[in-house]
């Protein structure tokens, strides 16, 4: 055991038991999503692909979500965002890897959903970037956090109505290095998504820069 773990032992995010971020009992309470759906119409899709009727030139091509945003997973993501426990992002990405679909290996690049530079400076890290790096390291996929930037500071999406979320995030991102993006199959990585407005805006920017396809990978879905 390292000195850091000795001085600051890991505790279960749900019950507080010392040892792991998810103890064996609370681990069983994680509600995995086992029914894939189209991110546009929310109806069933065998592997999360966007239905042909829902697909547009700038839309996501598909979505993979690990779990519902409740219980231990919700508590873990809140601890990452508001208590700045960055190691938890690594733990969550490990859980995701246990569930990842085979086509994740076929991606060319992983791109994290960016934070505004001001918010990232306040937090000290971008949890989506940490998750993307963990996935990329394990799957030997390049991670680029310079291809997509948040160009304006938006209000937190939490608590906003659906239409307000869309307005809040509209035109908030900008893509860079189109020579890298063009023709590539990109995995867009985020920690939590509710209405998928942010993911849609990011996908649109990447598609405008020539991305062949954009598939979103999210740890949790819900309010």
Your description of this structure?
- This protein has 223 residues and is α/β, with parallel strands linked by helices.
- It has two domains: 1-30, no CATH class; 33-221, Rossmann fold.
- The protein is 35% helix and 17% strand.
- It is built from nine helices and seven strands; from the N terminus they run ααβααβααββαβαβαβ.
- It has helices at 3-7, 24-27, 71-82, 87-99, 117-123, 127-139, 162-169, 178-181, 197-208; strands spanning 62-68, 109-112, 142-143, 148-150, 173-175, 185-193, 213-221.
- Strands 1-7-6-2-3 form a five-stranded parallel beta sheet, with helices on both faces.
- α3 (71-82) runs antiparallel to α4 and α4 packs across α6.
- The N and C termini lie far apart (37 Å).
- 39% of the residues are buried.
**Second rung of CATH, namely the architecture of the largest domain:** 3-Layer(aba) Sandwich
Distance between the termini: 37 Å
Number of domains: 2
Number of helices: 9
Let me know the number of strands.
7
| Order of strands, widest sheet | 1-7-6-2-3
Q: Which class do the helix and strand fractions yield?
A: alpha/beta
Mean pLDDT: 88
Detail the poorly predicted runs: none
What fraction strand? 15-25%
> Helical residue percent?
25-40%
Give the SSE order as H and E letters: HHEHHEHHEEHEHEHE
Can you tell me the CATH class of the largest domain?
Alpha Beta
Q: Roughly how many Å is the radius of gyration?
A: 17 Å
Protein name: Double zinc ribbon domain-containing protein
Pfam families: DZR_2
Family: Belongs to the ComF/GntX family.
């Amino acid at each position: 055991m390292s000195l850091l773990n000795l001085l600051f032992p890991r505790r279960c995010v749900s019950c507080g038991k010392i040892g792991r971020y998810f103890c064996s009992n609370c681990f069983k309470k994680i509600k995995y999503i086992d029914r894939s759906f189209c991110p546009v119409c929310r109806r069933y899709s065998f592997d999360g692909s966007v239905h042909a009727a829902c697909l547009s030139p700038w839309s996501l091509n598909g979505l993979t979500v690990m779990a519902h945003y409740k219980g231990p997973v919700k508590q873990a993501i809140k601890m990452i965002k508001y208590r700045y426990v960055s190691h938890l992002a690594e733990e969550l990405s490990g859980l995701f890897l246990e569930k990842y679909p085979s086509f994740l290996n076929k991606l060319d690049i992983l791109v994290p959903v960016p934070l505004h530079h001001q918010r990232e400076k306040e937090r000290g890290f971008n949890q989506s970037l940490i998750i993307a790096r963990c996935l990329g390291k394990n799957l030997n996929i390049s991670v680029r956090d310079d291809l997509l930037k948040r160009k304006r500071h938006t209000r937190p999406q939490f608590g906003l109505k659906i239409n307000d979320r869309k307005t809040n995030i509209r035109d908030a991102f900008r893509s860079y290095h189109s020579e890298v993006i063009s023709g590539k199959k990109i995995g867009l990585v985020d920690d939590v998504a509710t209405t998928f407005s942010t993911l849609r805006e990011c996908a649109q920017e990447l598609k405008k820069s020539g991305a062949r396809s954009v598939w979103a990978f999210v740890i949790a879905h819900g309010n």
